[in-house]
Amino acid sequence: MKRRSWSSSGRSVPTAMVRWRSFAVNFKKAWLLMKRYPFNLLSSLLTMYLIFLGIFLGVKYLGGTSLSAVDTLEGIIVGYSLWTLSIFAFSDLSWELTNEAQMGTLEQMYLTPAGFAWAQAGYLIGDLLFFSVFEVAMIVLMMLTTHRYLHFDLVSIVPVLIFTLAPAYGIGFAVGGLALVYKRIQAFFQVVQFVLMGLLVVPVNRMPWARLLPMSEGNALLRQIMAGGRSLWQLPGQDLILLLATGIGYLALGLAAFGWAERVARRRGLLGQY
Amino acid sequence: MGARTDVALAVAGLHKKFTKRHKPPVVAVDHISVEVAYGKIVGLLGPNGAGKTTTIKCILGLMEPDGGEISVCGYDARRQRAAAMSRVAAVLEGARNIYWRLSVWENLEYFAGLNGIGGRDGALYFQQLLQRFGLEDKKDTTVLELSQGNKQKVAVACALAKRTPLVFLDEPTLGLDVETSYQLRQAIKDMVRDEGRTIVISSHDMAVVQDVCERVVIMANGRIIADDQVQNLLALFRTREYLVKLARDLTREGQEIIQEQFPQAVITSDGHDPSVRVQLINGQDIYRLIDVMRQANADIASITQEEPDLEKAFVELVRKERANGNG
User: Fold this and answer.
1) Cα of A175 vs its chain's centroid, Å
2) What is the pLDDT of residues A220-240, one digit of tens each?
3) pLDDT band at B2; cut points 50, 70, 90
4) Ramachandran bin of B74, using left for φ above 0, alpha for ψ from -120 to 50, beta for the remaining angles
5) Which residues from A are below 8 Å from B109, CB to CB?
6) Domain segments of chain B: what residues?
7) Mean per-residue pLDDT for B115-125?
């Protein structure tokens, strides 16, 4: 028998419908809130572009001939784009939890019969999708600025990108869990941003062990696809397996840490407190 | 206790203790048991720190109790959480529970959607809610632009939009003006009458609780110190206290005569609303009171029997609990 939820209309709501609507309204909320803060979004994008411009001009005028290798500059565009996306992925959840606790809406999200994770997934996926649209525009702008053009093989990019960003979400869940228990940890967010940058500049070719670090393998593979023009099918199978393993592994670790923090917060009565 | 299907809410032996390093543990909820029947409005009262919010949060699964059983509309709230949560909604921190950057309608859609309510059926119901709360013309207004009273109404409407049989309202009328408070109370009463909802109201506003609730549960120091119908509690504290309003001040001699016959009498005779407040022991005393007033040459304007209110009953109960060494 299908599980159903109760409604005062006299009709019960199937559990699948509860999950779908819970996911859908959070997806829509991501869009509405992004739409309501246009200046915030535009200023973030402008800042991102200006930072890239600074890196580009610095490399061009100070780096000298070392930049003559065409793929280096294209690699910078890929790496920079991935860094901004990973910061977004990591911070979206941890900031969101802090904000929801501050606004007093976090406890309401925990009351959904669909479960907090289901509801939050709708928001995170929606937010990432909408942000990705702006990210693509940003990449186009970076390409126009540098006159270097990347390969946009979406069939190859999307799956690799998903498993590359999964560890960033894992870190986001772990830090979000800390925010649930310890509340004011914004300063820690800044530290994580620089850690993420470090992970994306690790030379995995010279340091094979570094491929086990979060996002490092995915970063290398995305460079091969977008800057090197290789397709998903041309990538070594063992590299893809490592990408899957690190992606799922770090996400699972992050979720486990979040689960632990959630239990502590429930025990101490900290959910929703700020 | 198994999951109870005959009542909307059943709590048995619920207890919760907070422990902090180097500090003695604080017992927030001390083995309380309470039941709420379907279609009733029950008030949950108590001074600050009595354990009301902790109790509500334990019922809602937002806080892990140390022990006890909770049944929400026939489902074990701890073991069958999803089923139990689809039957309960709550306003926990008044207007803080909603998104101020979203419109009234967007908030309704969002919070109802968390419980799977939406579509055409949902929209029709949201429209009814807006009418009931007098918010039709604010439908597309962002909550940020609303008055405090309307924000509060939206928060309550969002909880009701989930169409759950059990609803917890924590301080629903906090900071509202008299008219908005009245509208909100009326809307709550209508929802119970028309839809058979069960509502638990936690509030410090005794007038609201007395107006809306049939029954009150009073907590102090984590325990339930009274659980009865409002009328029974009022009867418990009904005294034979009379207020005699005077047309003019009493003379000194008059005051002495009254004080001699009724030593507990409170005489106000300073030019502003002169009166004598006196507690009588039995029914015959009213005639003696009138005789004494005549002897004191008092010019009686009116005599009324003072009715106790919930606030008085509440204060007396909590005071008694403290006097018993439990506070």
Assistant:
1) 13
2) 899 889 888 889 899 999 999
3) low
4) left
5) 25, 28
6) 9-87+164-235, 239-305
7) 91
Q: How far is A19 from chain B (nearest CA, A)?
A: 7
Task: Encode burial over B267-298: b for 16+ CB neighbours within 10 A, e otherwise.
Answer: bebeeeebbbbbebeeeebeeebeebbeebeb
Angle between the B104-113 and B148-160 helix axes, to the nearest 10 degrees? 30
**Rounded to an integer, what distance in angstroms lies between the CA atom of residue A160 and that of residue A243?**
8
Edge to edge, the sheet with strand B88-91 lists B88-91, B166-170, B198-202, B41-45, B215-220, B223-229
CB-nearest to A9 from B57, B86, B121 is B121
Average pLDDT of the residues of chain B: 87
Give, for B69, the enclosing helix (H) or strand (E): strand B67-72
CATH number of the B239-305 domain:
3.30.70.1150
Residues of chain B contacting A32 with CB distance shorter than 8 Å: 101-102, 106
Q: How much is the pLDDT for B201?
A: 93
Confidence at residue B166, expressed as pLDDT on a 0 to 100 scale: 95
Taking only residues 183 to 202 of chain B, the set having a beta carbon closer than 8 angstroms to any beta carbon of chain A reads 195-197
Average pLDDT over residues A124-128: 91
Nearest to A111 among B90, B93, B101 (CB): B90
Total H helices, total E strands in chain B = 11, 14
Tokens of A238: 């063992």
Total-model pTM: 0.81
Residue in A33, A263, A272 nearest the CB of B62: A272
The CATH-assigned architecture of domain B9-87+164-235 is 3-Layer(aba) Sandwich (3.40)
Q: Report the range of poorest mean pLDDT among A54-58, A64-68, B60-64, B256-260.
A: A64-68
Report the distance separating Cα B160 and Cα B108, nearest Å.
9
Contact A28, A126 (CB under 8 A): yes
Residues in Cβ contact with A148 at an 8 Å cutoff, skipping those fewer than 6 apart: A70, A73, A74, A77
User: Given an 8 Å threshold on Cβ–Cβ distance, is A113 in contact with B86?
Assistant: yes
Cα-Cα-Cα-Cα dihedral of A167, A169, A172, A173, to 10°? -100
Distance CA B7, CA B203 (A): 22
Please state the rounded mean pLDDT for residues B47-53. 87
In tens, the pLDDT along B263-314 reads: 888 888 877 789 998 877 665 577 888 889 999 998 988 888 777 677 777 7
Q: Helix, strand or coil for residue A238?
A: helix
- Asked if the C-beta of B144 comes within 8 angstroms of chain A's C-beta atoms, the answer is no
Interchain contact, B62 vs A107, CB within 8 Å: yes
